[in-house]
Design a protein that fits this description.
Number of helices of chain B: 4
Number of strands of chain A: 6
Strand content of chain A: 35-45%
Radius of gyration of chain A: 14 Å
Strand order of the largest sheet of chain B: 1-2-3-4-5-6-7-8-9
Strand order of the largest sheet of chain A: 1-2-3-5-4
Oligomer: heterodimer
Radius of gyration of chain B: 21 Å
Distance between the termini of chain A: 30 Å
Distance between the termini of chain B: 11 Å
Shape of chain B: globular
Helix content of chain A: 10-25%
Structural class of chain B: alpha+beta
Shape of chain A: globular
Number of helices of chain A: 2
Strand content of chain B: 15-25%
Largest interface: A-B, 59 and 69 residues
Structural class of chain A: mainly beta
Number of strands of chain B: 9
Chain lengths: 125, 307
């Protein structure tokens, strides 16, 4: 089942939730890209937070921007303002935009220590 | 000039996307992005503890198997939150009982339809690209009322005093004062207000009814996230019905003869549950300078605008 899910996610057949509240129209809804890179800036802001990270592919480095939702909402999902610092290695699963620009919105982010943050709310008592 | 070429291209793309999304309903927002378990990219948060704004673990008012008691008479005081989870009140695709799905729309008058058509919303079946929206909240303008109920309704504190009820919203730290001292509305409104003039009464011991007039309208505020309009003639009735000691339901009816041919109910029995009284609300603001940076770094490139 796990293997199937991995394959299905890779093939874009199953969409995992994304984090944003600035609309769906710009996005290639349902598509997922996974990128490994190095954090350049983590902007903890309202009404959105966003992560900038460098991705090197074929010898060329591109600075990607991935948006998440607002800081209050992220705290309820286990994120924090100290989650990333410049130089951190991250693997970002994102939904890209249709324009082809190096931007997208977060599905999940895996940190170098294996911790993963995503779109699920922390269960409430 | 080059930028405007790109804007026009982006608008065409937005129309195509909006058309493609018609009837899809949009997956983001209403559920707040809550996902199921299992699979890559879906993260378990089961081992984490949810904290309040003070950094303290939440306490369950019904801990230890306590069951809710009857609704207390004539009391609405307390810290409330959407009963179906923190994402349930986001209502990005329109208020809970009238989502923008391209099938059902409120009963617009011709003027209401024209106002709706002039709105380029970020959500709903006609959603546009982030850089194309003319939603006032996209500049961090106040949501106003009743949109405060129809978008980002999260932790909401009711403070009941002998002569008034104060409702404090988490989103943008806004509050409203509901007068319960028997006063009537002002004979002449000193001004139109973003959050109106509100009076409240108990229809029965478990139902607090609030009527609101004097809303700013005039295209300064929208009714919801999908661009439904409201005019300065809009009046609003809210019914806060306490089902029991730990649960209430919110029903909102809007009347606006300028923009809608008859009253309609955007929110019908929306459930809220009582949170622990010591809960400290996490600060949640719309900060104009942050929004500006967001547009520069994200929304513009996402919309195909290259500076």
């Amino acid at each position: 089942m796990k293997t199937f899910l991995r394959w299905a996610l890779f093939a874009g057949l199953v969409s995992t939730p994304v984090l944003a509240h600035h609309g769906n129209a710009a996005f290639d809804v349902g598509k997922t890209r996974e990128l490994k890179g190095t954090v350049t800036e983590w902007i903890w802001a309202n009404p959105h937070c966003w992560l900038k990270f460098d991705v090197t592919e074929d010898g060329k480095t591109v600075n990607w921007v991935v948006e998440a939702t607002n800081s209050a909402d992220l705290m309820e999902r286990g994120w924090s303002r100290l989650l990333f610092k410049p130089g951190d290695t991250v693997t970002v699963s994102l939904e890209p935009v249709k324009s082809g620009a190096p931007v997208g919105r977060v599905r999940s982010i895996t940190l170098a220590n294996g911790k993963v943050v995503g779109t699920n709310y922390i269960p409430r008592p | 000039m080059k930028r405007w070429h790109l804007v026009v291209t982006a608008m065409l793309l937005a129309s195509a996307v909006a058309y493609a999304q018609a009837g899809r309903g949009g997956g983001q927002g209403r559920g707040g992005g809550q996902g199921g378990g299992g699979g890559r990219g879906v993260v378990s948060t089961a081992d984490l503890t949810v904290l309040d704004g003070w950094g303290r673990p939440l306490t369950d008012p019904l801990a230890g198997g306590k069951t809710p008691g009857p609704a207390p008479a004539r009391s609405i005081d307390g810290m409330w939150e959407p009963a179906d989870g923190p994402g349930a009140g986001i209502q990005a695709n329109g208020p809970s009982s009238m989502p923008s799905d391209g099938k059902s729309e409120p009963p617009y008058t011709p003027a209401g339809k024209a106002a709706y058509d002039s709105h380029q919303a970020l959500y709903g079946y006609r959603a546009v690209l982030p850089a194309m929206s003319n939603d006032p909240r996209d500049k961090c303008d106040p949501l106003g009322f009743p949109r405060a109920n129809f978008y980002q309704l999260r932790h909401t504190q009711f403070i009941q005093r002998p002569n008034q009820v104060v409702i404090m919203y988490q989103f943008d730290k806004r509050y409203r004062v509901i007068w319960t001292d028997g006063r009537d509305f002002p004979k002449e409104l000193p001004d139109f207000r973003w959050y109106g003039y509100s009076v409240g009464r108990w229809a029965d011991p478990a139902t607090f009814v609030v009527n609101t007039i004097g809303l700013i309208g005039r295209e300064r505020v929208w009714l919801d996230e999908t661009g439904r309009p409201m005019s300065e003639d809009m009046t609003v009735e809210e019914r806060f019905h306490r089902v029991n000691s730990h649960r209430m339901e919110i029903t909102v009816t809007v009347t606006d003869p300028k923009y809608y041919s008859k009253p309609w109910v955007p929110m019908d029995k929306f459930p809220m549950k009582l949170q622990a009284n010591d809960y400290d609300i996490i600060e949640m603001l719309c900060v104009p300078s942050d929004m500006e940076s967001y547009h520069r770094d994200f929304a513009d490139p996402a919309s195909g605008i290259i500076r």
